[in-house]
Amino acid sequence: MKYLAEFRNGEIAQRLAAEIRRLTTRPWAIMEVCGGQTHSIIRNGIDQLLPPEIELIHGPGCPVCVTPLEVIDKALAIASRPDVIFCSFGDMLRVPGSHKDLFRVKGEGGDVRVVYSPLDAVAIARDNPHKQVVFFGIGFETTAPANAMAVVVAKRQGLKNFSMLVSHVLVPPALEAILNSPANRVQAFLAAGHVCTVMGYWQYPPLAEKYHTPIVVTGFEPLDLLEGIRRAVRQLEAGEACVENAYPRAVTFEGNRPAQRMLAEVFELTDRAWRGIGVIPNSGWRLRDAYREFDAEARFDVAGIHTQESPICRSGDVLQGKIKPYECPAFGKQCTPRTPLGATMVSSEGACAAYYNYGRFA
User: Fold this and answer.
1) What percent of the chain clears pLDDT 90, i.e. is strictly above it?
2) Fewer beta carbons within 10 Å, N or C terminal of the chain?
């Protein structure tokens, strides 16, 4: 409760907003990378405190949202098998595949279980030696260390019935892809603080220098975000482009080195498809050869599954910051939290869900 009180102070928020207004002399477009930051911005009305010259662009930092449709369909195919116990975090169960979601598979008799740690799935595999247990390993660098540890523990325990469907994505290559896009409008980034607690921010200075783009590591509470925006605007107005850490209570420059060593042991870089965006080179992780026996995609021979997105869902444009959610013709009509067309309406970090839940229809 300490940080809820300290970092949601209305008087300080107003002072920060006034300072941002004082600094701003021309239009600037700033992208908050993380979907959790987007929800905090919309829920707390932070965007409405800012001067009209400041546009916040909602980035692709929602792990559920960027998991490709074909990976969801692979998960559904595996989870539907009678010999499988399929384990996942709860936020993936309602993400629509081509024809259904994991809740539907569970309703049809599939053994789909919500777990709170990948190590829970390892324990389930140990307790059910006659079943194949699969964990759905998605997310950014934040969740990857625990997933890596689960694979290491399964190998140490000699479990032959545990595997992981891996769809990990990485933030720095996504930022570079955005900056390289001919349609890019982003002039500064608010980097995701929880990713940086694991990885640090030593990867960001080369990006800031190469593209002359300020990057401010930012938390998730209202004052965190306003301070991050203030620092970004100050840099933009001064013509500077460096990396600042506005989240020092949780983030250091080097990050969590033991976690990084674990990641390097278990995973290697690979090209990764992002839902609604496409393939970004070297933007994901896959299991190294030493742990490839735990690759569920190979074990269940689902690599050949390919899919096509809904033609009326513009979640890809939302993820790239090209449009706001309410600018999609399906938003709030064909696409609602009860009848989602895309993951951005399902996820607790999705931009479309944020706009729908907090009444931002225009």
Assistant:
1) 76
2) N
For the stretch 294-332, pLDDT in tens is 999 999 988 777 777 778 888 888 888 888 999 999 999
Q: Could you tell me if 322 and 230 lie in one domain?
A: no
End-to-end, the C-alpha distance of the chain in Å comes to 33
CATH number of the domain enclosing 241: 3.40.50.11740
Instruction: Mark whether 282 and 329 lie in a shared domain.
Output: no
Q: Would 33 be classed as within a structural domain?
A: yes
Burial of 19 (C-beta count, 10 Å sphere; 0-12/13-18/19+): middle
Hey, which residues does 29 pair with through a beta bridge?
55
pLDDT tens digits, one per residue of 150-192? 999 999 999 999 999 999 999 999 999 999 989 899 999 999 9
Please determine, for residue 239, whether its predicted confidence score (pLDDT) is greater than 50: yes
User: By residue range, what is the domain housing residue 290?
Assistant: 1-311
